[in-house]
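Key result, reporting period 2: structure in, sequence out.
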């Protein structure tokens, strides 16, 4: 491979950015280059003072693998086509018969390099600052020539009919100058595109969280899309100058690396998120999708107020690593968004997500947080009756808190109908179906959730269990293996692995893993309950009783789910104490009571009259 350190080269009217893996004209979108053709170009530019043999190219670009002679020829031909040269026109890359290739154009090297004067000659000596003139200054001049409102240009091929059920990945946009990087803008542009295209009736759109994980530094967008299992990928860049933003994007087909569409848009910085309707419409048109029509302007908090939308994005970004601290930060950001824009429906939906997640991950009291989640959902749907995220949270609340199985199913089906690519809705529906005994249907929605969130440790871990129960053993094993690849220290995976070790005979190894998991989740009761059960099973009764005492003290000082304490009491043989706590869980709306029928911890209690009464009170279908 060429030198891995990020570099910038300019020649003629072209600029090469090895970090972004792009070649573009100074004022144009990225050229549609196959990944290996780009690597060939960079290697030839780096070795421009000499002739490079075919063997050297094969060793550098194809890692020494045996490649057909035609493979290198095709890469050179792709470069010449992309650089607008005709057959026989060797202005940039000269073929030296019998020896190899040489890059012959004048090159200026450096992050702030500016292309030489068009025509192949170097910039005049009087220009003198070619290595120092900032890209920002050039961009200012370019943007000043554009109208006061908006200008754009694009190129596209005839519309390509996307295959049924094809997948699309939208990668976080990249800022061309590291000194001007704006992470919220990069994420926001992708987020709003995902939201706009997500209501397509024929295309599955990967989540932003998985796309973030796939786009490692220096990763080619085609490689990232392949890792996400996506046929199409949207890759974009951002340039900022003088309170204006230039957004360039391209839609690539991973099958052949060709660009189906590319375009460049310019807008005021405070209006940049409003570009997404036009971008989304262009992508939908290029793929001939049957997307649901969107009436009127952008939905509230989808970009009209840049400050409110940035606050929303700051909250949304906390969802990547859900924890008590992260959800409290998210709530503060959503409140800020609503202060700036009281019609911000998505911020209300985000608040509902944060409240319900606090209950599940941080042992927050459901009697406090679920009513707050309900109020936020009601407000979100009053502002936007078609907001899929709000219906997804409504489905969770009706499932976990209201125990309204029919109502929960209706909400989740509505969310999926509005946005078939909303992974959390599919996962929630899979959970609901699993808990009420509809295992085969649960497996189908778990499969879709994992497909939409292929690099999420949580989705893969939970999905694996439901896939296994539905009989999809191979898919379940693949999902479980992906957790180890993506985040081997994920606390929930560590908890399950620790329990498996302990019950398989490696008690001390299992306990170490469980104690590590407890530390990672801030001593959450979900892990403590398993740890207490393992202590009891390993005849470490004193340790189990000490842990039980700490858990009961936490319950007196604030709130701890009764089911977690009940699990330890049951493991210690206190059947009546466990049943007392399950009855308490029924009264206190403990969310884990919804798992009563599928939770093996209670198998020894199922024939007892008190347990049967609790089960009946849950009103399972």
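The corresponding designed sequence is given below.
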């Amino acid at each position: 491979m060429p030198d891995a350190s990020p570099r910038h080269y300019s020649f003629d009217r072209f600029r090469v950015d090895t970090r972004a893996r792009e070649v573009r004209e100074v004022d144009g979108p990225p050229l549609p280059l196959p990944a290996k053709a780009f690597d060939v170009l960079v290697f030839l530019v780096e070795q421009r003072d000499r002739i490079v043999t075919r063997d050297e190219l094969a060793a550098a670009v194809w890692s020494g693998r045996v490649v057909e002679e035609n493979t290198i020829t095709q890469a050179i031909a792709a470069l010449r086509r992309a650089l607008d040269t005709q057959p026989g026109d060797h202005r940039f890359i000269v073929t030296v018969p019998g020896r190899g290739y040489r890059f012959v154009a004048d090159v200026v090297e450096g992050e702030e390099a500016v292309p030489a004067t068009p025509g192949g000659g170097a910039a005049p000596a009087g220009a003198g600052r070619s290595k120092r003139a900032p890209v920002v200054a050039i961009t200012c001049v370019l943007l000043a020539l554009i109208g006061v409102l908006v200008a754009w240009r694009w190129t596209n091929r005839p519309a390509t009919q996307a295959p049924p059920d094809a997948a699309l990945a939208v990668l976080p946009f990249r800022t061309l100058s590291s000194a001007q990087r704006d992470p919220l803008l990069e994420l926001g542009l992708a987020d709003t595109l995902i939201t706009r295209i997500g209501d397509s009736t024929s295309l599955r759109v990967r989540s932003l969280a998985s796309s973030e994980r796939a786009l490692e530094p220096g990763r080619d967008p085609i490689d990232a899309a392949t890792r996400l299992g996506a046929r199409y990928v949207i890759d974009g860049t951002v340039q900022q100058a003088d309170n204006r933003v230039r957004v360039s994007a391209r839609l690539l087909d991973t099958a052949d690396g060709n660009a189906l569409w590319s375009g460049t848009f310019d807008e005021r910085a405070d209006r940049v998120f409003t570009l997404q309707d036009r971008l989304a419409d262009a992508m939908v048109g290029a793929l001939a999708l049957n997307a649901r029509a969107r009436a009127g302007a952008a939905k509230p908090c989808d970009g009209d107020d840049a400050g409110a939308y940035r606050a929303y994005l700051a909250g949304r970004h906390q969802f990547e690593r859900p924890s008590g601290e992260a959800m409290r930060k998210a709530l503060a950001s959503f409140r800020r968004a609503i202060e700036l824009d009281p019609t911000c429906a998505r911020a209300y939906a985000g608040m509902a997500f944060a409240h319900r997640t606090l209950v599940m991950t941080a042992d927050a009291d459901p009697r406090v947080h679920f009513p707050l989640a309900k109020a936020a959902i009601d407000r979100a749907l009053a502002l936007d009756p078609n907001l899929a995220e709000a219906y997804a949270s409504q489905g969770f609340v009706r499932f976990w808190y209201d125990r309204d199985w029919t109502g929960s199913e209706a909400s989740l089906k509505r969310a999926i109908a509005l946005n078939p690519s909303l992974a959390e809705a599919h996962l929630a529906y899979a959970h609901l179906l699993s808990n009420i005994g509809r295992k085969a249907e649960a497996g189908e929605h778990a499969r879709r959730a994992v497909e939409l969130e292929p690099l999420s440790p949580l989705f893969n871990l939970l999905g694996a269990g439901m896939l296994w129960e539905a009989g999809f053993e191979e898919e379940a094993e693949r999902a479980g293996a992906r957790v180890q690849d993506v985040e081997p220290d994920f606390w929930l995976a560590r908890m399950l692995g620790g329990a498996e070790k302990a019950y398989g005979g490696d008690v001390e190894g299992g306990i170490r893993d469980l104690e590590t998991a407890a530390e990672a989740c801030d001593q959450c009761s979900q892990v403590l309950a398993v740890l207490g059960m393992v202590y009891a099973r390993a005849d470490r009764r004193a340790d189990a009783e000490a842990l039980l005492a700490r858990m009961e003290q936490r319950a007196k000082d604030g709130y701890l789910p009764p089911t977690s304490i009940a699990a330890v009491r049951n493991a210690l043989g206190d059947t009546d104490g466990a049943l007392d706590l399950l009855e308490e869980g029924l009264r206190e709306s403990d969310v884990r009571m919804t798992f009563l029928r599928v939770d093996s911890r209670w198998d020894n209690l199922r024939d007892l009259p008190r347990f049967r009464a609790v089960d009946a009170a849950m009103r399972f279908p």
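The first strand starts at residue 8 and ends at 11. The CA atoms of residues 274 and 606 lie 56 Å apart. This case is discussed further under Risks and Mitigation.
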